[in-house]
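your task:
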Amino acid sequence: MDLRINRRRGAGLAALATATVLLAAGCSSQGGKKAQEAEDDLAAGKANTPRLKIAMITHAAPGDTFWDTVRKGAKSAAAKDNIELVYSSNPSGADQANLVQNAINQKVDGIAITLAKPDAMKGAIAKARKAGIPVVAFNAGLDQWKDMGLLEYFGQDESIAGEALGKRLNEVKAKHNICVIHEQGHVALEARCEGVKKTFNGKTDILYVNGTDMPSVKSTIAAKLKQDSSIDHVVTLGAPFALTAVQSAEEAGGDAEVATFDLNKDLVAAVKSGDVEFAVDQQPYLQGYLAIDSMWLYRNNGNFSGGGEEPVLTGPAFVSKDNVDTIAKFAQKGTR
């Protein structure tokens, strides 16, 4: 057989195959384009599922930078999951419950909520569940979320975190601390200080301050330190309060050290400089991220963590001079 004929015949078949592919591509260009876009979105880590509307409702007080980190995590998850995030907050339990009702009225696809004042939230959450809206809790409400019928919980065990800090105070040979609660009646904050008292071998005094009035916080802590020179540690329950407590200790003129729960960029710098001895990190970015991402997983796959029985713990972890350099690069990004 003439090889030239075979070559011509092979070339003709190849051309025919190419034309067929091009024709098919032309006929289905719209569908192919959509399929490719979907594949590209998935490759980029973005969901191509129907858009969801999720409400995140917290007890954040104005000016508390902790919640900026929570919200940043929530926004990252929402952007990835094609979710419209509706964020609102109020430190008042009754007003927070009203925000839940607003979310119900908007017919949201899910609610992520903090339970700092769980008794005030029971009625509103029951209404959300009756309306068929899944609800997850995060940050506050570890002991209440299951009894209230919520789907999941993301956060740290505040009692365990407090106990860990109390043990750390023993290690640094502290004798007398004041545990500063900036929101009276907040179950998570109360649990932290109770945890400290449980494991600390020295004396723990509870000091209540008005967390929405930072000059008052500063003067109240300073007055307590001046009144009792045996206090060698101030334990605060949030980064802004720790930074203020550093100023209070300087004003009081004593040698009291500051330790705290929670981080922000300035607090990490204070640990690095030695102004704050150590901090307990509960990873607020992770809490916000998981709370929103869990809604996408539940709505699209029916997934939920812990079998509805166990929380997903995000802390505690200690940040001190020993490991602060590792944390600092993430704190600069606002994710720790």
User: Anything to note?
Assistant: The chain has two domains: 52-155+284-314, 158-281. The two ends are 75 Å apart (CA to CA).
